Amino acid sequence: MTLHWHGVLQRGTPWADGPAMVTQCPVQPGGNYTYRFNVDGQEGTLWWHAHVSFHRATVYGALVIRPRGGAKAYPFPKPDKEHVVILGEWWNATVYDMERMAFLTGIPAPHADAYTINGKPGDFYNCSAPNRTSTLDIVVGEKLGMISHGDCVCLLAETAKFEVRQNGTYLLRIINAGMNTPLFFKVAKHRLTVVGADACYTKPYKTDVVVVSPGQTVDALMVASAAVGRYYMAASPYDSAIPQGPPFSDTTATAILQYAGARRKTVRWRPPVLPRRPAVNDTATAHRFFSGMTALLRHGKPSAVPLAVDTHMYVTVGLGVSLCQPEQLLCNRSAPPVFSSSMNNASFVVPKNTSLLEAHFSRQPAGVYTRDFPDTPPVVFDYTGDESDNATMQFTTKSTKVKTLRYNATVEMVLQNTRLIAKESHPMHIHGFNFFILAQGFGNYDKKRAERRFNLVDPQERNTIAVPTGGWAVIRFVADNPGMWYMHCHFDAHISLGLAMVLEVLDGPTPETSMPPPPADLPRCS
């Protein structure tokens, strides 16, 4: 087991970052490791999760960082109350075994069986008849907490509830802890005002739908301005793939927003109001949300976007195929290559015996990693064109390549989605850094046209970006945090297939800008 503190910058504490075999060996059964780190200069909603195998499917939680002055120091109206809303995915299987079988066979793990809000699937999973869209009919056995759907009975305990008072203001801290699915989030009869994303404040952005990819967080204010009653919160899947692959679960996770004073009746109980959900492939709505936010500049401070760039990178992200690895014991070696994924055609494999950070600190990379991750794709092609999707372009090889950056270098990275296998929005997360999103769009990146659209004044700042399906995004950051920092797709089905790389940031000129030695209790590889 390892734990990652998603979005915490870990300045001076890279040993506490958590990804298995990148910054540490996993904690073995019966072992222990204390994560010690400071949170400095960050405010908002982050989260923590397991970072080995598929364990984060159920091992996760919220990490809320409030201003030193408390709620009155927020740069938006003080809410009457705050609610953490964690969106997740659920399988009717043991996720470790599922991930292990996917690796051994080279066949991707199946989609989730259900989505959850605060660990509960809501009223439309298991309790509804097949293809049935009507909601609750009669409340029975209220003391037992049960609801009848006409032909089945389910427990009220399987639906999360949030209590509000009419005209009150509430801060919803929304986290997508799901493994592989971006989600639309709506509250029936209510609008939301986004005020933060990935623990960075945004200018108020009004919307009736929030879109969160795995790894992302959104802070949104909600005024309880509807009539006293009961309303559904709903989280439904966004499937960005073109062409669409195996179908996502079409269930919708629900929670209930219940106003104080809403009385329940035991006969013909009126069901909560359900919001109209976007279509599962509504890329226009997703892109409008992802590209619509800008940063909140506080106290008259100018934007911190670095203007001079030292290192330019153009990185393709997408799917592909690879040969079976020796450890894939159930892989059909007589069949065509198996499913894979890569960045700049390098499909990442974590080392087996020494973590990357230990090899870096000891200055002994040989046999652990190589410093030859390419700054540009090894082959230039029509990245988003259908005609490019052929066996030659799909093929990728396995490696453990890192990109080495000098301390304090300003990095500009173009993330280019590809058509190989399928166009798909990939949520790309960088450990150890926030980055500015200068621009994003569809098709192949065109430098001259894109640079005219760069927002260098108030771009949104994030740690995870959903690269548009069949499109691109430009990010910029300063490499001022020495260590080995994982960059990967936050679809766990893709990271395990190689959609990852590592940024090796060298020490600065002083002890304060250099990596500290490992803690005494750092786990050792068995």
TrEMBL record:
GO terms for cellular component: apoplast
Q: Which PROSITE patterns match?
A: MULTICOPPER_OXIDASE2
Which cofactor(s) does the record list?
Cu cation
- Tell me the GO BP annotations in alphabetical order: lignin catabolic process
Localisation: Secreted, Extracellular space, Apoplast
Catalytic activity, as annotated:
4 hydroquinone + O2 = 4 benzosemiquinone + 2 H2O
Query: What is the recorded name of this protein?
Result: laccase
Q: What does the UniProt function comment say about this protein?
A: Lignin degradation and detoxification of lignin-derived products.
The main enzyme category here is oxidoreductase
Q: Determine the domain of life of the protein's source.
A: Eukaryota
Keywords (A to Z) from UniProt? Apoplast, Copper, Lignin degradation, Metal-binding, Oxidoreductase, Repeat, Secreted
